[in-house]
Amino acid sequence: MVGLGSYAVQQLSGWGRFPVEECHVFRPEKRRLIAPLLAARQEQNYIARGLGRSYGDASVNGGNGVIDYSRLNRMISFDAATGVLECEAGVSLAEILEAFVPRGFFLPVLPGTKFVTVGGAIANDIHGKNHHRDGTFSQFLDSFELLTAAGDVLTCSPESNPDVFWATAGGIGLTGLILTARIRLQRVESAYMAVDYFRAHNIDEALAAMVESDERYQYSVAWVDCLARGASLGRSVLMRGNHAVRSAVRGNDPYRVKPKFRKTVPFDLPGIALNPLTIRAFNEFYYRMHPTAHGKVVDYDSYFCPLDSIDHWNRMYGKRGFGQYQVTFPVSATSGLTQLLERISGSSCASFLAVLKRLGPAGPGLLSYPTDGYTITFDIPMRRDLVPLLRELDKRVLEQGGRLYCAKDATALPETFAEMYPRLDEFRAIKARLDPDNVFSSSMTRRLGIVNGDTRKRG
Amino acid sequence: MANARTVAILGSTSAIARAVAVAFGRQGYSVILAARDPEENETVAADVRARCGVEAHPMPLEAEDFESHAEFVKKCLDLAGDSLEGVVLCFGYMENQATAQSDFRVARRIVDVNYTATISLLERFAGYFEQRKSGFIAGVSSVAGDRGRQSNYIYGSSKAGMTTYLDGLRNRLYHAGVHVTTIKPGFVDTKMTFGLPGLFLVASPEKAGQDILRAIRKRRNVAYVPWFWRYIMFIFQHVPEFIFKRTKT
User: Fold this and answer.
1) A203 and A177 belong to one structural domain
2) CB contact, 8 Å: A272 with chain B?
3) Total domain count, chain B
4) Model's pTM, two decimal places?
5) Any B CB within 8 A of A458 CB
């Protein structure tokens, strides 16, 4: 029988499987055991960890403590009249969908994977395909409870402790441990989406279509072939839709979705499996598979989380892992976006489909990623010059007034990060007040020098 | 409460028991949740209610307090009446072998919770099911009960006792049309095993909960969770004793 203070030594990484660091992982079984665990201060510092879907080191804490939330996943209450769900921070978006879609409710914001915890959703202030209309996850919270370094439990909302609320949204776990949250679920008429597909021959066509008609759709995203060149640079498939109304769905139960056959990548693929040839072939196939079409009825899981049905899809990139590069570009900087595509398609680094999306205005979260403009995301297999390549891209993005996303980053430099997030000093002030001894820290925190430029290996 | 099918889960705050409660809740069963820790039990109940939209009734139960069991069973029957369709016994106590060897109180507790309490509770429920002439009982034993080995024989033997008891109960209740399922988990990822070295093929509690529900619905006699442990234990049990006694497993 293992006692309260015992931990497991684990090699942890993000979804990109780089970097990998040894951490002391604590896994409290009950919410009320978190405070005493923290108070015992067995480790110099701690970071919370949900389902580990960040790509980099946001929930990795090399040589120090990690608090694993997998057992802190109880739902507390649900009010069908208001749609408000109160639950522990370890509950995953997948569990919420599984429990509530059949009852007619949906998540207000859903990212590309549902295997993300509520705590992670808040700490990264996630956005989805509806950001241009609805904003980020934190904008749908009534409140959350935060355990601070001093052991106090603060109830935070836009009205109560608003400074702490907006520091925590996007604050990658640095303000404290999120214990519970109250989320406003949204009523929907079915578990399906009515989707229009538009095949754009190049990036300009894609951008024009987004600008022209994104407002007609609650959800909008484009899958971009970033290996195409010349006149076809940035050719893409726009997939835009709305929740399907009851009448559009056949069958007796509009909330019933046939269970999908789960595939898995059972082991790491060898390095040569994903190379420019195979990826080019895949992208060509994908582009041809999606001609322009209107009003196709698709189940929500296939529309929002296509990769979730392949367990361990990150193994396709092999043991060395990969980087996921996601950046914003302001509206005025579409030429910068085009240049980025040219750079990616021209370099020998193969990337699968990229994801392009129009974003709405920035929210109040101090370190929240989305800002008015576009966001583009690439996977890049690990290679010897990956880090210098990404840092070169960071410089270009910075020049264009864009920024990168903590949930994806594994390689950026502190100066780059500080310039990209102008509200960092405001965040630092709140962090210093809430956590003067830096009890909450992570490998990412130290790498990016988020706490007053302190990049020392330990606390 | 009277009309919905109900299942009673004994020892409801463990990870496996929570998963079993949710698995039944998803099928529309109301659940009675019996455990020692009232605050945690209420937390589990709230989760089942919110997640599954069914009724969940937390009740106090102390496995070692044998005198209290008659009253406990009566309370369950008063609450659910004839709609109590089944009982799943999920509680268990494990302590490391060295401690159990040197401190008899620990060894005694292992036996009291895993074996004696099983008899005390299930005999009382058996009477009700025998009269009802339908329903199920399931007991969560362990692969550790399949053979005594030096690294875990006090826990293992208490589970062996439980397994044999459940065999006998199955035999008795068969004639009343009531089914008894013995669940034998291998390594499950719980607080009991977190961070321990030397584990392999560790199953998640959620998967264990689903497997347990499926085994009960299919009226399995003995179900290994996950399934492959049946074959691992088959080999394990058939190693001749003159060889086995020399090993250091």
Assistant:
1) no
2) no
3) 1
4) 0.91
5) no
